[in-house]
Model the fold of this input.
Amino acid sequence: MPIIHLDMDYFFGACEELRHPEFKGRPLVVGTSPEKDKHKGVVQTCNYEARAFGIRSGMPTAQAFKLHADLVYLQEDYDYYDGMSRKVHDLLRGYNFPIEQMSIDEFAIDLGSMGYEEAERLSGEIKGRIRKELGLPCTIGISCGKVFAKMVCDDAKPDGLKTVREDEVREFLSEKGVGKLPGIGKKTEERLHEIGIEKIGDIAKANVIELMDRFGIFGKEMYELANGIDESKVIEKYDVLSIGREATLDEPTRDAVKINSKLSELAHTVKEEVDKKGFTFKTIGVKVRFQDFTEKVKSRSLQNYSNSEELMYRTAVDMIAALIGGKEEYVRKVGVRVSSFSGGKGQKRLF
Ligand SMILES: [Mg+2]
Done:
């Protein structure tokens, strides 16, 4: 039953402090522009010392320097953070529970039938290992659903560990503002305020039919969440038995020609890997990371096993186009992956 939500604390900033210990304890921001144009960009992350001056991520860097002139400024380094993220993922995978990577620095883990006490002990161990072996701080929330675990985690930040069991969830939620419920953005929040609903506890007591009239199916979802029902599941996005490659684009873009040429390279490399193992595959998956660091994945199963590079490429192009279509951000990175294998040169498992 328990689900863990693990979120790295001020991730980019913490990664930078790790390789620049001389900056530790000083207010630090990681921004989007190069050092020489640092006032032009946006703050990506800031450490807690910087937050004490009112600096927040998403703020123009120029404004951050107005709040505190003596800031340490570093330009973001995606590949480095991505490598650190993979180390966290590898450490977590060692525990053999289903893991869903929600973003570069957030993971949901399904602990199955484990009891809450054991879940808390294990979470403490994971948190300690990430600190000791990788040198990074994180916060863990434990609850009875993926959405609730994330909210508990947000509540326990930074460097926290907190559990809210199913019989405590309604109370945990009731006094929070409706905007704290994942999925409720500014607009929905305003519309809820218009009908006198301020707290999540008010949603729990509202008329579900009325909520559905106003918000459609999401009205029902928010009603259920507010009443302590969270059916979201941890979904492993990629099969463990898969072969895939990812690559960062030369520059963030939405240009299909550039994106497809990268997909073509990736499909070629993946195909070589697949051939080396003597596999055929039945599932093709893609991943796209946008400039705001959100990620989307999609996969498609074929009718029959295949080892066609052309098919892999065309399917990837199709799925990537669908993923990009729903969003306005520039694309940073794409990935191609195949799974559900058959065949193999006397080899049953890849790991
Ligand atoms: Mg984080």
